[in-house]
Design brief:
Elements lengths: L1 H16 L9 H21 L11 H21 L5 H9 L6 H7 L10 H5 L4 H17 L3 H19 L15 H6 L2 H8 L4 H14 L13 H25 L10
Length: 261
Amino acid sequence: MLGSLRICSKHRIWKRFYTTNSDTLNARNIMVLINAQETTMLQLLLELCLPQDADKHNQAKLEEARKNICRFIHGIFIDGDRDMLLAKILHFQTYALELIPMVVELIPSIYIVFSFIPELTRQPQVEKQIFGILMACHLCEKYPLENYLAIAEKYVLPRLLKIAFPVSQDGNSAVCVPSEALVQAIPGFVHLAKAFPHFGPQILQAYDEIARGLPAPKEFIGQEGNSKLILVLRLHKILKDSRDLVQQEVDRKDLVNKVIL
């Protein structure tokens, strides 16, 4: 049904706006309208995958809906998005971070997103950088390919450090700036370590660099209600927990080689 509605809607747009004698809208303009409509539809479908209070008592129904929605999106990506434009627009608009594991697991064609991970992590909006980092880490865990590791090493891990140590007006970046972005991004690299245990030491090195750059909790003595202190404490805990998990993968690196050559 969704497929039929999609086709009918595209036809109506062409019929309403496109004429060979039009000086205002050409075929490219029409395709922009159609792509905007299609990505809006995909965004709305993904929003339906977010758990609601009513789903607590009917988890099976939510899982079934998620599978059907992801199957539909997969069909669009492989049949109606040959130039990957819809996939790119959708992921540059981003969606809820908590949906990334589901999307990676249930949409087989989602691997196409990795082709524009470098561009996504370079976007000026930090939230898009975080989205790109987490998407890359989850994709690497599912598809531990050598070329994915190269992209993660060149673009993804360095982006984490750039978020942690933003360049100031005087060009220095020696101070780690605590942020919710770091809270979201740091645990993602555990998935990267699971995919590539031999890359784990570099992740640990980045974690240690961030930990050294963070203010020590003792600097906030007497300021227990300070919101920055709460954020710093959260970051120290997340770093420790994530570091322990990455270390576990490093310890077993000689037993596992997931890289598909």
